[in-house]
Design brief:
21 helices, alpha+beta, 18 strands, Rossmann fold, six-stranded antiparallel beta sheet, Glutamine Phosphoribosylpyrophosphate, subunit 1, domain 1, five-stranded antiparallel beta sheet, 16% strand, globular
Length: 557
């Protein structure tokens, strides 16, 4: 939807509310869930941060005052809606659709931001709300933008940030709080969709695959399971992921459907995601025919970093913040050779082997130079200056929420590129809960894993993804080693059935498509003085996927 506002008129703001003898016109992108719209608009005008930070929803709200001088745009805390805005000569244009605002502003190849293009490829998003279109920005999370139509100025004020809250909660109190949050989250989703006969859930053997069905059933919700990937990568046995997915489905009595990662040709996948979600990282290998699912609503574990998943590794306590951010919030990390084998041996023996990704601090040749990397680092440092008084792990959480978080709302696992209604069990529901954790409990999902091991022991015995062993409480070292050996052996024999991107980018279909898109975009690359050639550099498979998607987008410009 397009909204246009200038000094004398507005188009698209169809609702209004009277407040303090003044009329305010407004529009809500997304949903306020169960909140009262009028009270929310009043809180925005009163600049009531305490009220806004308690809102639960998936929204961005646009409010215009009756004088037609000022517009406020307010996003939810996790910033789940990608909303685009552009201000020029007293005219403000807003949309929730990239192609819509591009066409409304009559922008083309000459209006592309080369830095924005490269940031979206390498960081999976533009830094500091940049897009690939010059002058077009996204609305940051947990923020009030105030736009003065008489001066063409934009003032940014963040009304919430993540930080640990000192409390007197005991260990058991915190486990109770996690249980209560999950119960309330699924209960709220159920209340928002009272007519839905079933809800779709991705089942892959991971922690979310166990948590979501458990609490969905606790709230009386019917579940339809699906797994995207390849069932038998070793040709003979079911993959480790699919084997675990079947056990989870059996445990909960679920129907589970396999959706092959290549059931739709890769070129068709690229065209779909370039049309439906051009502003986020590539979802190729995860796009399927949504009509194969009966359910209209997805329950997901999007933004799992909220409870301490990647990038919130304990290594942040030893690594400089910028280096850790680049390694775990960009695609600049390159794994050393035999990384999986080294990781397995290290996990089993405790030896300090070199298996962690290494930062490509010099970039990737002409495609992404050292100077361009330094420019990106400066953008990240600018972001972190807002949070000078908090710890590095808190800063990183804010970076993840305000950057990566919004991209998950159009991820293929999370919403099938927006073709299905979707809800995450983590955002916004867990934001307040996790602030009650301390750093040790958050990093590496420590408290979350202990919660499953202690409160949901019936979900422990199923092996996790990759060669992760089953979860456990306090066990002796010998038992721990034997479980690791079994898990590794099982994984080696069965192989990886989901998210096996390193192998899939080496498929002949992918390579042929890469060669063709390189040729088809040659003239555009020359015109923009842009290179997608990373030479002989080993790069993350995500970069290869993102380049193909960006090339597809350029061909549509």
């Amino acid at each position: 939807m397009i909204i246009r506002v200038n000094k004398t008129s507005q188009d698209g703001l169809t609702k209004k509310v009277d407040f303090k003898n003044e009329v305010f016109y407004y529009h809500i992108f997304g949903s306020l869930y169960l909140e009262n719209e009028t009270e929310v608009i009043k809180a925005i005008q009163d600049d009531n941060h305490r009220y806004l930070e308690k809102l639960v929803g998936d929204f961005t709200i646009v409010v215009l005052d009756s004088t037609f001088r000022s517009v406020k745009i307010v996003s939810d805390r996790p910033g789940k809606k990608n909303i685009f805005h552009y201000i020029n000569e007293g005219v403000l244009t807003i949309s929730d659709d990239f192609w819509e605002i591009k066409n409304a502003l009559s922008l083309g190849i000459d209006d592309l931001d080369i830095t924005g293009i490269k940031q979206q490829i390498v960081f999976s998003t533009g830094l500091n709300n940049r897009t690939i279109l010059k002058g077009v920005k996204t609305v940051p999370a947990a923020t009030i933008l105030t736009i003065d139509l008489t001066k063409d100025t934009v003032t940014t004020k963040r009304y919430w940030q993540f930080s640990y809250i000192n409390n007197q909660l005991s260990y058991d109190d915190k486990l109770d709080l996690i249980d209560e949050t999950f119960t309330n989250a699924l209960g709220a989703i159920r209340a928002l969709n009272p007519e839905e006969p079933s809800f779709a859930v991705g089942i892959s053997g991971g922690l979310d695959s166990r948590i979501i069905p458990y609490y969905a059933k606790k709230n009386g919700m019917q579940i339809e399971g699906f797994t995207i990937g390849l069932e038998k990568p070793r040709k003979l046995f079911l993959s480790n992921d699919f084997n675990s997915a079947n056990k989870i489905a059996d445990h909960f009595g679920l129907e589970r459907r396999t959706l092959n990662y290549n059931s739709i040709p890769f070129e068709t996948q690229l065209n779909m995601e370039s049309k439906l979600a051009p502003e986020v990282c590539s979802q190729i290998f995860k796009i399927v025919d949504v009509s194969e699912l009966k359910s209209n609503v997805l329950l997901t574990g999007a933004s799992g970093f909220i409870i301490g998943a990647s990038p919130l590794y304990k290594s942040i306590k030893q690594s400089p913040l910028i280096e850790h951010t680049l390694l775990h919030q960009s695609l600049l990390g390159v794994k050393p050779k035999a990384a999986k084998a080294k990781k397995a041996i290290s996990s089993l023996t405790g030896l300090a082997l070199d298996f962690m990704p290494k930062l490509s601090a010099s970039g990737f040749g002409d495609f992404f130079t050292k100077d361009e990397l330094d420019e990106c680092i400066a953008d990240i440092e600018t972001f972190y200056t807002e949070f000078e008084t908090i710890s590095d792990s808190e800063k990183l959480m804010n970076y993840a929420i305000f950057g990566l978080g919004r991209n998950n709302s159009k991820g293929a696992f999370e919403s099938f590129l927006g073709q299905k209604e979707s809800y995450s069990i983590y955002t916004p529901f867990f934001l307040d809960t996790v602030q009650q954790f301390n750093e040790a409990e958050l990093l590496d999902r420590q408290l979350f894993q202990e919660f499953i091991a202690n409160r949901l022991p019936e979900l422990n015995s199923i092996q996790g993804q990759s060669f992760k062993p089953t979860l456990s409480g306090n066990i002796n070292p010998i038992t721990n080693v034997s479980k690791k050996i079994f898990a590794m052996g099982n994984f080696v024999i069965r192989g990886n059935g989901v998210m096996n991107y390193e192998n899939w980018v080496n498929s002949s279909e992918f390579k042929k498509l890469k060669l063709r898109l390189d040729n088809d975009t040659k003239n555009i690359q020359t015109k923009l003085d842009l290179s997608f050639d990373y030479g002989e550099h080993r790069v993350h498979p995500g970069i290869q996927q993102n380049i193909l998607k960006m090339q597809t987008i350029l061909l549509k410009m």
